[in-house]
Amino acid sequence: MNKDPVSKNKEISISEFFNKNRHILGFESPQKSLFMIVKEAVDNSLDACEEFGILPSVTVQMEKVDQDEFKITVADNGPGIDRKEVANVFGKLLYGSRFHQLRQSRGQQGIGITAAVFYGQITTGKHALILTKKPEDDVTYRFEIGIDVKTNSGVVSSEDRQITEMDHGTSVTIWARGKYQEGKQSIMEYLRETAAVNPDMELTFTNPDGKTIRFPRTIDELPKKAVPIKPHPHGTEVGDLQFVISEAKDESISRVLQNSFSRVSSRVAEEILSLSGVEPDQKAGTLPLKDIKAIVEAFSRVKIMPPQTDCLSPLGIEYIRRGLRNVYEELRPSFYSKPVVRSPIVYKGNPMVVEAGLVYGGDLSPDEPIRIVRYANKVPLLYQQGACAVTKAISDMDWRSFGLEQRSGSGLPFGPMILLVHICGTKIPYTSESKEAIAQVPEIVEEIRQALRLSARSLRTFMRKRERRNKANEKYRLVAQIIPEISLKSGKILGVDPPDTSRTISRVVNVVLIRERIEKQSEDTYLVSGEVTNYTNEERSFTIHISPPAGKSDTEKIAVERLEPAESRPFSFTVKSELPYRETDFYVEGIDPVYVIGAEALPPDYQMKEISYEVEEP
Amino acid sequence: MNKDPVSKNKEISISEFFNKNRHILGFESPQKSLFMIVKEAVDNSLDACEEFGILPSVTVQMEKVDQDEFKITVADNGPGIDRKEVANVFGKLLYGSRFHQLRQSRGQQGIGITAAVFYGQITTGKHALILTKKPEDDVTYRFEIGIDVKTNSGVVSSEDRQITEMDHGTSVTIWARGKYQEGKQSIMEYLRETAAVNPDMELTFTNPDGKTIRFPRTIDELPKKAVPIKPHPHGTEVGDLQFVISEAKDESISRVLQNSFSRVSSRVAEEILSLSGVEPDQKAGTLPLKDIKAIVEAFSRVKIMPPQTDCLSPLGIEYIRRGLRNVYEELRPSFYSKPVVRSPIVYKGNPMVVEAGLVYGGDLSPDEPIRIVRYANKVPLLYQQGACAVTKAISDMDWRSFGLEQRSGSGLPFGPMILLVHICGTKIPYTSESKEAIAQVPEIVEEIRQALRLSARSLRTFMRKRERRNKANEKYRLVAQIIPEISLKSGKILGVDPPDTSRTISRVVNVVLIRERIEKQSEDTYLVSGEVTNYTNEERSFTIHISPPAGKSDTEKIAVERLEPAESRPFSFTVKSELPYRETDFYVEGIDPVYVIGAEALPPDYQMKEISYEVEEP
Fold this sequence. Notes:
The structure is a homodimer. By secondary structure, chain A is an alpha+beta fold. Chain A has four domains: 14-215, Histidine kinase-like ATPase, C-terminal domain (Heat Shock Protein 90); 238-299, Helicase, Ruva Protein, domain 3 (Orthogonal Bundle), CATH 1.10.8.50; 316-458, Ribosomal Protein S5, domain 2; 500-601, Immunoglobulin-like. Chain A is built from 13 helices and 26 strands. In chain A, the strands form four sheets. An eight-stranded mixed β-sheet of chain A has the order 7-6-5-8-3-2-9-10. In chain A, a hairpin with a 2-residue loop joins strand 2 and strand 3 (69-76). In chain A, helix 8 crosses helix 9. The longest helix of chain A is centred in the C-terminal third of the chain and has 53 residues, at 442-494. Chain A starts with 9 loop residues before the first strand and ends in a 17-residue tail after the last strand. Chains A and B meet through strand 1, helix 1, strand 4, helix 4 and helix 6 of A and strand 1, helix 1, strand 4, helix 4 and helix 6 of B.
């Protein structure tokens, strides 16, 4: 045995650790590093504004200082930071306000912005410049902040006061080595996707070439505020309860349960304790391990209400729709699914909501893997797609029956589709501190799969409909073209006037034809006009139900009465829709649908409001 | 503006952080958690044995204690742990001996085993049991260790001494909630793949059903020991140099450079300092930022030797070959590539070596994505494949020209192939603390791609050869079957004896045919016998070069002289090969190779030892 290596065990400061493992914080390449700095600062601005009920105005400015050095400034109109907190907020890793709170927010760990300051310091030797003003402050505070790696603490290299025009807000300037690129996984893409689901934000971005891009505010209303909650008994481990108890030694266990957990009333506490054979009055601190275990076990056997969901702020159907439209409308997709918003699930005591939406067709390439747009707590995830629970859920699903191409029924499918998935929760299990992918926790993957299945089902309906319609239209087109031509030619040969062919068409085609034309009248109003033609041999009376796939029409149905063979009847109605309107879904009643082109049989569960799409609202 | 939310900024202990983010440490599901505990303990055992020059003997024992509680014991014959260190090693996150050393090792961060103890405590409330004895100790120390989450420190709940049979070593027992499964991504798979590349280890595993599996030691020799080195100037950032300087204020900058970096001689230091306009005698502590920046910039402009590579311990060609054979021989692959060991590269001052090998065909399914076997510092990576630099390098490569199926030339290819990639380095940038995937750093991805390209090139040679051989064989088979039959039938019809057809075959086929049969004679000896037949119309003289794709033959070439049309000549030789031997590569010289079936043209650069494979040795 070799004895020379002396084991030099030593404590490692969290800053030293992250200095050696910068890639874990997302700083693994010069391009990605600039991206991370902008992202962390903007996420912080949006969190601060949301928490304090401010409609966010954010500016991002990038300047090239040197060959590979950039100056990045992110300024907001947020609540400002207490001057005594500045050094810690920007200079100490693992320091923050949101870690101990259960509430949906972009930041949680107290790592992000400090990591950005840290990276700037390591690569350029320069400290970050912070300007901040709270509404009640008379002056703006100006700090230069660095990080002491050995002790993981903020270093204030200068502090100053100045009069600025700022009403309230914070501005962070970081000098960092990096590389600026546009295109995929870029700062621009992050900002655009952020704007897509944060329509209450206005954002101005000046890139290093001095070009300014503005994302205007499109909604003057704050999103629903997320309220902090207490942890829920479900998902509590023995060690968690031990810890809670160690904090409150002298209180009775019944009190501790009621005070420390959400949804534990005195009645529920009693039930839990009676099941676990523990006296409600017993001092929490005196409980032996066996009792603590019994209580944790009882948690799962007692009926406890699911956690409140006001700690969450999902996007909702309207925001997803807008987001998809704002970002992808230029691709003219032929199908927008109605967004799916799932009911909350509880993962380790934390509520979580999965939302999904998809667009299909249009100018999207059918020869590439589908595009996945992932959001977690309203932040776009642009990196680490392969590691993400969302990708896993997509890859595990067989998409072939939805008209997509997929080798052997697993893996990323190919086809002209964009899938948007948003996951929000009080605690999102990211795979690393850079928060780029959601860990592949089986329960979460399964929940995403459910949302995808619902979205995809509406896609299947669309694709089937389109296929049937295309077939029928093709048949009609052929007949309606060929018969008049035969008639014309025969007439010529025989030297007689060609006979009226519409009755002949009727006999051959034997269909009722519904045709529509769509005209945009204003931003959200479309005039739909068309006619019904009876190409059958009998007089027909029936009802056409009007079902817009997006928006709402002013007419619910058209009654067609005594339509003679070869007779046409015009119709028109108006549709209000925020999404571009391309086609109405028509359903017929009172006629055998096999005779009808341009409409489907009325589904047995048809209702004007909810059409063929399956949606779960929270 | 909403003023009620009082910002409660607070410091977060690293234990609290990891408690909330257990999935970052790999504890995201009950099954994975048991896996992590075994993995962290075994990795530690192997590191300790390697460092102290001990041939490792490890036992892993799992017992089911309860519905979902397991008792996991991992014991080794390592150097033991100083009793004063035990509480910190097992109870304090970010505490260890390898963090501040640049040397290849499995563990680096001082997180793994503490995380395992931590997870056990949280899920069962029980502390871990540690037995340890150093060779010089008279007794074995027995500890029960827990973790204080608030302060991130080890808690000793009991300490004892006992007489055991242990000579030296450490045994860790952890009680934890989890789920035991075999199959993909299991403890069994981890142990099997670990054994495959650590043939100096003997390992005994008892699963929860009491079944014992033994992985015997197959090499009685320690792998090359990795020696610690100093950081290399390449990859040093301004902040890193600032930090180095802050540690050594009064020394001259020339001294500091020579003492703190590897490969900086006094001459190199002088060159760096003259380039950056800094006096060599200047006290390091007095240098302004601008000078420090100039020095860092000069680092990349001065020629500095690459870092020593004795801090690394790559597997090497032989171990990769053995590893592939030991684990995959049951699939009877038809092709083993000669392993590729790349020259070291330097990433951020840290040397790193990429190695690769592949097997193809046999019983592997052609309808599934290829299998990727990833190792980092000799530890198999079973999770997070999608996030890994290895997967990225594979997906970015166009595999279609290598005979694999790949939609649009990117993404994971499909086909009957297993790719083994090993990356070793003094600092592997894992994507998270659970060390399951290597970050997609552009330089590393590119280096892996180079290794893959070399491996794949030998695959292409094999596939082309096989295809040509198959075609020619098919032609020969047809002719050699049909002509005698025609002769027989014609003879019958004409009532004459069928004529000898071999000359006719010669005329039609016009080839020289080399056929071989392989017979296994002992564990590593194969007798190859066969014959050369001249199915052309001329007398032929030529040389056959014998080139075994694995192993070594006792004969280098066969001289074939004056082989008459329709004449056969037998040959035989012996091949020694550790890998299963299935087929010889024959090359011909002195005959136009288009006339030859069963051999290829002699490559211009042919040499007996290195055949057609491209290999870089370190």
